[in-house]
């Protein structure tokens, strides 16, 4: 048994919030009237009652032209076409997979939306339907892109790019999708020696750097034989803890913030990063570096 | 608005349980001073106009009291001299916890604005709240809180002086160290400028210091020891009941024994007083004794005489009898004192400041008090409270509370009776009177709309002569050839007494009208009881009617209830009604209706008897008063007519019908009356008495009992049956009110009447239960709305408890009043009367004299020792002297006279006239003829 | 009368509150990272944790899924150590099933169920310490957890108890001690902003004369509770928003 177990009372709980002195926008809470004028359009997080536009979630107001919506600070992933997501297969059905992507309904990955081994233009035969479980089975992790959004809100995914497909060795970190900063690139080759996929749905994939040719096999091969060296595993663990720490401090996640956090974390052992004080410290240091960057 | 602290309490309920309670500490609590500008304002009775003058302090001051001062010296606080007192909430809570009656008195003082008392909530105030330390005892903690509050006040209002009064020396010393002026109440009162009578009222806790006498009682165990003992099963808890006849004996009823445990002798009684909850130890079987047949009185005169031995000896002689032994034990500790204030007189014979007080209640021991007003108090009936009973004192110590008036004065004696029976008898307050309707009272159209107009019907009332609170009236008229309509109309008191008014609260508290021989203490003010609610002849009144359709055999075909307006044609007495029925020449509708009612009543009665209703008897007499002097001029047995029974039958029927109706509509909160079946043990004396006379009394069921009582007659002694019935009555349990939700259905049974359901509906003027029943019934028939308390089982149960208590007390008070007046009547008279032996005791015969409804003791010999010419046979319960044998129920002739030596307990002296026993009986008075004893009226148990 | 006075002569209750004062409410949102939303609330000594999962795909019996509304699944439970006597409380006993159903009914009133067809929301509440007013605390905690999860609700759902003291005075937010000593207790769940009452429960019968005043007290209690909860939500949002630098929103505005 490990000899040093950290136990603390709830009263000694550390406050993770890293308060910054900044302008506090108006916060709306459910039931609050946003506007009594009716020329606005009803967006997410709002509803209309007796001609008033009211908030239905707690958050900040967003106005895009006439569309008013209230954005909560935390919610399930609302997919948009083009988003990159990490997902887990939950069910194999006829001609499609069901994928958990942290949205309120499972996403769908059609057999026709994947690249099957043997080339892009291969015809999908009945045999393929039988073979589906061979390609992806329940529990497998994949990276994919949102192809479109169905009317009931569920997402249709595709992996028709070599970037996407089944994920092999690595670590999955789940955070709130609102913490993922929107940017063009979701795939990052971090200079510290790991790949990271920041899925828009709040699922983050950290993996060791693999040979390029392997990933081109079509995305259905898992290379589980290759032994990842201990330093690499440590790097991945450290990244995982850094991301967790930033999420804990409710800081936005993107390549720079992760990288900064990684660098600042080097003064701690990997496992020390689980200690609340270290988490807060890491959060503050990262925050400082980011603000230096933006101001400088 | 408030800050919060949470504290954890540990409680012990079987196992250790952790309880957490919140305690909100506030900063908005008013200190009570008008001059204060730091506090949030609220109402306060403190006034700078009231000045406390005490030689200990230079100027006006405010008093802060410790709990012990209030508990011990409430009589002093009752005096107007002391004012501007701050009662801390800590203290108030402790008082409430320790002694509820004192708490109630304190509250009434606090609520009186002219007394300038103020409750300061120190335990929720930010500045005065203290946390109880882990090892701190609750008493120390409370003392600390009190001192904290004192110093807070001193700091909070620097211009005023605050004084802490406490009896606790320690507390006083610490307070003085903390610069809080602190005195004991004795010290304070002695230095008050206007203290004359106050000193007498000081409770005496510290007599023993003055006497320095040796301890004569064993010590009491502490609460902890008692708790432990009870848990172990070594000790038992029970309520002590003193014997009326023997001041050195009493009994305790405890759960683990079927029979009462006997306590006998000074040290075994160990300073217990009637009503106290005690812990007792039961002796080994070989030390058990039988209940004493001796009648003993404490005749010590000197207040300082602590000699006990003599009486003790007499008692110990008794241990010899091994038969009929009962569990015996001794008191080891007092769990709860039930001391109250006692009425009585000062015993003569002591000249110093210490006097013995002789309570009117024979179950209470004499009390030693200190007074300087003995000369004036000697002729007065006074009230005294007990303060303590130290181990070295033969008597409890007490103090004088107030004087009632001259001894022997009718007013004073009535007052004593009322006080001793806890009958609320003060004048109705202004607030209560303001609830009464304004005169002239008129029936409005509104009233006519909601009530059935029965003014055209020939209704009459039948009551005893001189009755002014007529609450029932009757009518009967044929509605077809084979159907009669019978109506019982009860005064609609609930129309006038509305819930939540002061009037209602007062009536509920009084619960019943109390009838003394020459005085009536009304439950409701006179305007209602003798006027608006009284169904007087020829006046329009509101009534609650119960109307039946019956056939000629008194079978009920239909029942309905409604509120109505009636106009009684005539208010008759029983005698008048009887004459009307018997006088065949009267053929008016009223006479017809009475005859019909009488006929129906006979059917009803027969049916009831067949069901096993008991006919019980108790000697009941009426005392004729001189209208001028209010002295009793004659005592006579109440006369009964057929019409008494007629009215009674219909009242019973109405009550039963109403009971069924309200139980049906309010299964949970109907006010009913139950009469539990007496346990076989209670009936044992009856069975035994029957056996001695050769009758078998079957007590299997009420019906069997009724039958066997009917058969137990003997031609040579016509009164014997009545005697048995009197005995049976005494074996019965009390009938009680209850809320239907608090008992099981089979327990609703009324044993005496042999009906499954019963309630009281017919006398709302003089019983509160009837008012409740009226309200329930009014809701049932849609005439009125409910109100919260009416629907609440618990609340109803509480009311029932009070009603039962008041009802019982009213009965006792009534009897006491009759006894008092019988005594007055006999003062200075000597008469020979015929009587019957009720019980045979070891040294006496208990004799009943039916003519006066009087029961008294014929001592066989001098008061304490028995003449040896009598042999007592325990087995047969007989006393034999040569050829003369006294059995129970034997007729005897007795000479009656009054012994007025003891003005408090005047008693009858009985001497035997017949049968003649040489050297014991006295010759008959010459000119007195032997009157035949009349049969006292048979009274049905209601 | 003989029943213990719940409001003393000077107008204070056993714990020092006045008749219309709530117990202290302390609450915290986002206490767990695993569920979508979570909250902890203390109302006096009553302590409740709530966790919300979803909306998510209906798991298990898929036939339950509805085309027009989200399924709300509530689970009430009490910790063994929640009362002064340790007691095993198996899930699904009558009391907890009843409270689960009531909780569901309360939440349905506020959640815009039609927005999430085919989905399911799970609400778990666990009583850590019971000191009267368990159910209201559960409702309030669940509301906070829903808000934390970003699930749209029409407005706050708040609950409160009220009772009658000394036979005529209405008092609000009944503690365990008062529940035992006092008379009937009324529990209401309300939408305090629109003053709609969602659910009402009485421990015993109330007399009609009392009901109005008690109801008003309880409703007032709900409104006060709502204000306290609202403040807590605002504070929470400010804390979290400040850390993220309002980034998720700011960016959108620019777009």
TrEMBL record, chain A:
Which CDD domains does the record cross-reference, listed alphabetically? KH-I_Rrp4_eukar, S1_Rrp4
> Which segments constitute the S1 motif domain?
82-160
Where in or outside the cell is it found? Nucleus
Entry annotated with the keyword RNA-binding: yes
Q: Does the keyword Ribonucleoprotein apply?
A: no
Q: Which UniProt keywords apply?
A: Exosome, Nucleus, RNA-binding, rRNA processing
Please give the InterPro entries that the UniProt record associates with this protein.
Exosome_cplx_N_dom, Exosome_RNA_bind1/RRP40/RRP4, KH_dom_type_1, KH_dom_type_1_sf, NA-bd_OB-fold, S1_domain, S1_RRP4
Q: What name appears for this protein in its UniProt entry?
A: KH domain
Source organism (scientific name): Popillia japonica (Japanese beetle)
Show the taxonomic lineage. Eukaryota, Metazoa, Ecdysozoa, Arthropoda, Hexapoda
TrEMBL record, chain B:
- What superkingdom heads the lineage? Eukaryota
Q: Where in the cell is it found?
A: Cytoplasm; Nucleus
- Drop me one GO molecular function for this one: 3'-5'-RNA exonuclease activity
Chain ranges of the RNB domain: 451-783
Q: Which UniProt keywords apply?
A: Cytoplasm, Exonuclease, Exosome, Hydrolase, Nuclease, Nucleus, RNA-binding, rRNA processing
Give every PIN domain span.
Answer: 61-173
Tell me which SUPFAM superfamilies the record gives: Nucleic acid-binding proteins, PIN domain-like
Q: Which cofactor does it need?
A: Mg(2+)
In its UniProt record, which GO terms are filed under biological process? nuclear mRNA surveillance of mRNA 3'-end processing; rRNA catabolic process; rRNA processing
Mind telling me which GO cellular component terms the entry cites? Answer: cytoplasmic exosome (RNase complex); nuclear exosome (RNase complex)
Q: Which InterPro entries match?
A: Dis3_CSD2 (IPR041505), NA-bd_OB-fold (IPR012340), PIN-like_dom_sf (IPR029060), PIN_dom (IPR002716), RNase_II/R (IPR001900), RNase_II/R_CS (IPR022966), RNR_Ribonuclease (IPR050180), Rrp44_CSD1 (IPR033771)
Q: What is the similarity comment for this entry?
A: Belongs to the RNR ribonuclease family.
Q: What is this protein called?
A: Protein DIS3 homolog
TrEMBL record, chain C:
Protein's job: Non-catalytic component of the RNA exosome complex which has 3'->5' exoribonuclease activity and participates in a multitude of cellular RNA processing and degradation events.
| Localisation | Cytoplasm; Nucleus, Nucleolus
Q: Which organism is it from?
A: Popillia japonica (Japanese beetle)
The name under which this protein is listed is Putative exosome complex component RRP41
Q: Which family does it belong to?
A: Belongs to the RNase PH family.
Q: Work out whether the entry's keyword set contains Cytoplasm.
A: yes
Checking InterPro entries in the record gives:
ExoRNase_PH_dom1 (IPR001247), ExoRNase_PH_dom2 (IPR015847), ExoRNase_PH_dom2_sf (IPR036345), PNPase/RNase_PH_dom_sf (IPR027408), Ribosomal_Su5_D2-typ_SF (IPR020568), RNase_PH (IPR050080)
Any one GO molecular function term: RNA binding
A Pfam family recorded for this sequence: RNase_PH
Keyword terms of this UniProt record: Cytoplasm, Exosome
Domain of life, source organism: Eukaryota
Q: Which residues form the Exoribonuclease phosphorolytic domain?
A: 21-152, 156-221
| Gene Ontology CC annotations of this record | cytoplasmic exosome (RNase complex); nuclear exosome (RNase complex); nucleolus
